[in-house]
Design a protein that fits this description.
Strand content: over 45%
Helix content: under 10%
Radius of gyration: 20 Å
Number of helices: 0
Number of domains: 1
Number of strands: 2
Shape: elongated
Largest sheet: 2 strands, antiparallel
Order of helices and strands: EE
Structural class: mainly beta
Distance between the termini: 19 Å
């Protein structure tokens, strides 16, 4: 039987910045991970059949 209600989780964004300047310098920053906690409401669930 599927469970409905609110489920907590975390979404993560990964950022990498590559830069260059007019003086010829260049570099990379990252990856920087930005986690964001969130809560999702489940109102419908469908079964997935597997082997």
């Amino acid at each position: 039987m599927p469970r409905f209600g609110f489920f907590r989780g975390t979404v993560q964004a990964f950022w990498t910045v590559r830069w260059t300047s007019s003086t010829g310098l260049a570099g990379t920053v990252g990856p920087v991970v930005v986690p964001t906690p969130m809560s999702l409401r489940v109102v419908e669930a469908q079964p997935v059949l597997g082997r």
